[in-house]
Amino acid sequence: MVAQTSLDTANTPIPVASGGTGDASLTAYAVICGGTTSTGAVQSIASVGTSGQYLKSNGAGALPTFQTASPGSGTVLSQQIFTSGSGTYTPTSGANWIWVRAVGGGGGGGGCTSGTASGGMGQSGGSGAYGEYWGAAATLSYAVGAAGSAGTAGNTGGTGGATTFGTAGAQLNLGGGVGGTATNSSSTFTGFSVVGAAGGAATTADLGIAGAPGRSGVMFQASVAFSGAGGDCAFGSGGSSSTVFGNSAASVAGTDGSGYGSGGSGGICVSTAGSAAGGAGTSGVIIITEYA
Length: 292
What we know:
By secondary structure, the chain is an all-beta fold. It has two domains: 1-68, no CATH class; 100-291, no CATH class. The protein is built from no helices and 24 strands. It has strands spanning 32-33, 43-44, 54-56, 65-67, 76-82, 86-89, 97-103, 112-114, 119-122, 130-136, 140-143, 163-165, 172-174, 182-183, 192-194, 202-204, 207-209, 217-221, 224-226, 243-245, 250-252, 268-270, 274-276, 285-291. The protein has a five-stranded antiparallel β-sheet, with no helix packed on it. The protein is rod-shaped, with a radius of gyration of 31 Å. The chain starts with 31 loop residues before the first strand and ends with a strand.
């Protein structure tokens, strides 16, 4: 028996009812679907899609289409977390797309010195910017923002490093929180407040949120004061406020942030108590959730 082809001897497409396709040619690599009737010509999807897309049903009476995966679909395959340094992210085998959440490094709190009857107070550090990215799984470079250092006595705290994902931060570029300055020491006590340093900026992100500034501190009188707490973020809490109450000669260091991306609080000196350092910020983090 001779095998039947899709064309008869007159180069006319053989209909489906006779065992053919009803078509003279088909799109290369396209998915073939049934015709609009049980005996109609087969039809192919117009697009062959792109790498990483999936084929989605559009219900009865419509051809399926290739779609790009989006957050909330698919099965979680694994998770990779980077808490320091830089390098290259390599997707786990079988990962089709990724959801990345990250934050820049937190700023350190400012230190203070005092040789006066009033006192001094360091600014609290801001938190790093938060951002999210979602897209096809691919090998990409990354860098985690370093923690801002604690300001030594009388000196400014370090600004947190930027956290980036992708070449030159093409997918995420999240600034670190600003370090707090050493401020406010006067020869005549009048009371004063100190606003916190600024949070980092989310320069590049599918969803970007600027970091929180450090909180304000207040010196009410020469023996009653509290420094501002460090800026909070999605993955960490700022260093708690340092306080002085009822002590006319005290110096209290700021406290370090916790978690990732948070700021440190400022140090306090009252009266002629000398000097105090600020608290350190915390490093950023990159959390990559991979989906099959």
